[in-house]
Structures are given as structure tokens and as C-alpha cells.
Design goal:
Layout: E1 9-18, E2 25-33, E3 39-48, H1 51-57, E4 74-81, E5 93-96, E6 99-101, H2 107-110, E7 121-122, E8 141-145, E9 150-151, H3 158-161, H4 167-177, E10 187-191, H5 195-206, E11 210-215, H6 221-226, E12 232-235, H7 239-244, E13 249-254, H8 263-267, E14 269-277, H9 289-294, E15 298-301, H10 307-320, E16 326-329, H11 334-342, E17 349-353
Parallel strand pairs: 10-11, 10-13, 11-12, 13-14, 14-15, 16-17
Antiparallel strand pairs: 1-2, 3-4, 3-8, 3-17, 4-5, 5-9, 6-7
Helix pairs in contact: 4-5, 4-10
Bound molecules: NADP nicotinamide-adenine-dinucleotide phosphate and zinc ion.
Length: 360
């Protein structure tokens, strides 16, 4: 871990935290570090509610450090810059995603792949360089090292852009790895039409692909096609539809948050096809061997994106005018939003209006 000295935690911040695995969110006052030489301070405007936040507040993965202040889909405005910071100035519209710190020295950090640094620390539930636990964007102010901050293109609204910081980059990087960015003509499947899934559909369409949504929710078909631009829709619980879809897709992105089998999804891939898994259920998912070996198919994982990829994704979204479909809520509605997210009842991302700028 690089040696970085961070000054004392003196700045009082109002936020919202869960204190135990009941997952209930309550107001929480805490301290953040002073704005160091490499830091920027950000007045938080909006923060998306990622399903990961729900996994963390409920301690689904058994790694939550309470109290936890969730939030890693943050947009806001710079209010202070440290003396080493050259690429941001006061008033800039910026975004912060999942990453808060990395070692800066390993091959991944040196190669702009710091999301795979084995000492990576996250925006919340991480341990920062000074040993303090990180608190996320469900709060009115953030201090972030400038190396983990990106610019938000001028044409993107701050509320609908917020979920790009996690959902957007998480689906962008596997698309890039599979040569789908700005290189049209492939058949792309998106499994799970939630926060991640709906941005994946928009991106894949903007890049010129034929997009099939694979969903457990027949009620999402009309919207998927008319609002998001999907070409085709398969209800995954309908065997006949799944049969018809066999061997039709080049790449599938699996964004499902719950345990499921990859077998039927793999069957949808052509020979040599790739299934990129980004969903992170708490229990192992089933990976039967036959659909893998009979189709020479691959399954690969992907963890958010590097900061370079995050800025690239923001710029690509600016170019194509890609934003998220959001339901804006006030901070005192976070618990209701969590309940609805757990019931798969959101179109397609809740975003908290932290600064109270919108007309709700
Ligand atoms: P979300 O908005 O809740 O969407 C998940 C979707 O999965 C739902 O909309 C639903 O789509 C489908 N689904 C839910 N329960 C299901 C079940 N039992 N069987 C089959 N499908 C089901 O969640 P999200 O915010 O997009 O996040 C999705 C997952 O990605 C979470 O596990 C999250 O932790 C993970 N994640 C990973 C990364 C990473 O870096 N790899 C980053 C962010 C999030 P349908 O109604 O269409 O079936
Ligand atoms: Zn997330």
C-alpha cells in the first residue's frame, strides 16, 4: 500500500446509514477527512441506489462493516481542490463510482486497470489509506482522491447520469472486452432488466447491435422494446421461447442479482460465444458443463471498470446521449426504495436527490 498521509477527520457530514443487518437506513452524522493535497471535496447532488447497496446493508456477502453509509453512483459539484490537483476546479460537475483507493504500484494500477489491484478499496465499506472506513454517497459531502473522480459531460443531466458511475461502467467494460463498443452488427443478450441491464440495452443499441432481453418479467417486454429500443425479448421461464432462442447470440451479459443457473443462458449463445457475468448473487450460481463444452462457450467475470474506462464510458454516453431511466426519491424514502428494489419493482434505477435540487 502506498504511503499517503491524510489529515485528520474534521469535516462534519450529514448522511444516511444502516447500523445492522436489518438494513434499515437512518440519518447518521459523521466526520470525513480534511481535503488533502490530492483530494477534492464534492457537494453531493445525486446518488443512485445500486443492488450492491442492498446486498451490503443486509450483509448478504458477510463482509459489511457497520455502520455502513452506502452509495457509489455519485454525481456532484467540486467545492474544494487540494494543491496537487490540476485536472479539476471548483464548480466542475463530477462523478464518483465504486473505487476510492488502490496501491498505485502494482501492474494493474500502473496499467490503468486499478479495479483489479488486490488492495483495491471501495467508496464505502473500504479501508482508506489512513486506516479509516470509507463512507459512500448517501451523504451531503464527499472527500475523494482526485484519481478516482471523473468529469460528467455537460449534456448529461446529473440525476440520470448518476447510475452510470456503477451500473454504466460495469456493463460498458465487458462490452469493450468483447469488442462491442462502436463496432456494430453483433447479437447481444442482456439477462435481467434492472439498473445494470437497462443501461446495457441502451449502450448495445447505441453501438449498433441487435439486442435481446432475457427476463423473468413478461411485464417489462413493451417497455424494453418501445422505451429502451430492444429488438427481441425472451421470457426466461418460458421453455418454448428459450428453445427458439438457442444458438442465436454472440455475447450475453448476465446482470442477475439472485441465484440462478447459467445452463439455459449458455444455450442461447452461438458456438464460441461469451457469457460475461456481472451480477453478484450471494450464493454460487449453477454452471453445468454440457452447454459449455458442446458449444465451446466461455464464461468470464468483470468487476466495475478502471478510472480510465469510467471516463471513457462517460464520454461515450455524452456522445450518444445515453442516460439512465431513474425514479427520483428523497432521502427519507430510501427504506421504501430498498423494499421495492428487493421486490424487483423499479424502472429502472432509484436515485436519491441528496441536495434537494429537483421538483419531486
Ligand atoms: P437490479 O436493478 O435489482 O436488477 C437485477 C435484475 O435481475 C432484476 O431487474 C431482474 O430482472 C433480475 N432478477 C432479479 N431476481 C431474479 C431471479 N430470482 N431470477 C432471475 N432474475 C432475477 O440490480 P442491479 O443494480 O442491476 O445489480 C445487479 C447485480 O449486479 C447485483 O447482484 C449487484 O450486486 C451486481 N453488481 C455487480 C457489479 C460488478 O462490478 N460486477 C457492479 C454493480 C452491481 P428481470 O425482471 O428482467 O428478470
Ligand atoms: Zn453498484
Amino acid at each position: 500500500m502506498a504511503l499517503e498521509s491524510t489529515p485528520n477527520h474534521t469535516q462534519t457530514v450529514a448522511g444516511w446509514a444502516a447500523h445492522d443487518s436489518s438494513g434499515k437506513i437512518v440519518p447518521f452524522i459523521f466526520k470525513r477527512r480534511e481535503t488533502g493535497v490530492n483530494d477534492v471535496s464534492i457537494k453531493v447532488m445525486y446518488c443512485g441506489i445500486c443492488h450492491t447497496d442492498l446486498h451490503f446493508v443486509n450483509n448478504d456477502w458477510g463482509i459489511t462493516m457497520y455502520p455502513v453509509v452506502p452509495g457509489h453512483e455519485i454525481t456532484g459539484v467540486i467545492t474544494k481542490v487540494g494543491s496537487n490537483v490540476k485536472n479539476f476546479k471548483i464548480g466542475d460537475r463530477v462523478g464518483v463510482g465504486c473505487l476510492a483507493a488502490s496501491c498505485l504500484e502494482c501492474e494493474f494500477c500502473k496499467n490503468s486497470q486499478e479495479n483489479y489491484c488486490d488492495q483495491i478499496q471501495f467508496t464505502y465499506n473500504g479501508i482508506f489509506w489512513d486506516g479509516s472506513v470509507t463512507y459512500g454517497g448517501y451523504s451531503d459531502m464527499l472527500v475523494a482522491d482526485h484519481r478516482y473522480v471523473v468529469h460528467v459531460p455537460d449534456n448529461l443531466p446529473m440525476d440520470a447520469a448518476a447510475p452510470l458511475l456503477c451500473a454504466g461502467v460495469t456493463v460498458f467494460t465487458p462490452m469493450k472486452d468483447c469488442q462491442l463498443v462502436e463496432s456494430p452488427g453483433k447479437k447481444v443478450g442482456v439477462v435481467g432488466l434492472g439498473g445494470l441491464g437497462h443501461v446495457a440495452v441502451k449502450m448495445a443499441k447505441a453501438f449498433g447491435h441487435h439486442v435481446t432481453v432475457i427476463s423473468t418479467s413478461p411485464s417489462k417486454e413493451t417497455e424494453a422494446k418501445q422505451r429502451l429500443g430492444a429488438d427481441s425479448f425472451i421470457v426466461s421461464t418460458d421453455d418454448e421461447q428459450m428453445q427458439r432462442g438457442k444458438r442465436t447470440l454472440d455475447v450475453v451479459l448476465d446482470t442477475v442479482s439472485a441465484q440462478h443457473s447459467l445452463g439455459p443462458i449458455l444455450e442461447l449463445l452461438k458456438v464460441n460465444g461469451t457469457l460475461a457475468l456481472v451480477g453478484a448473487p450471494d450464493r454460487p450460481i449453477e454452471l453445468p458443463s454440457f452447454p459449455l463444452i458442446f458449444g465451446k462457450r466461455s464464461v468470464k467475470g468483470s468487476m466495475t471498470g478502471s478510472m480510465k474506462e469510467t471516463q471513457e464510458m462517460m464520454d461515450v454516453c455524452g456522445k450518444h446521449n445515453i442516460t439512465c431511466d431513474v425514479e427520483l426519491i428523497k432521502p427519507d424514502q430510501i427504506n421504501q426504495a430498498f423494499d421495492r428494489l428487493a421486490r424487483n419493482d423499479v424502472r429502472y434505477r432509484f436515485v436519491i436527490d441528496i441536495a434537494g435540487n429537483s421538483k419531486l
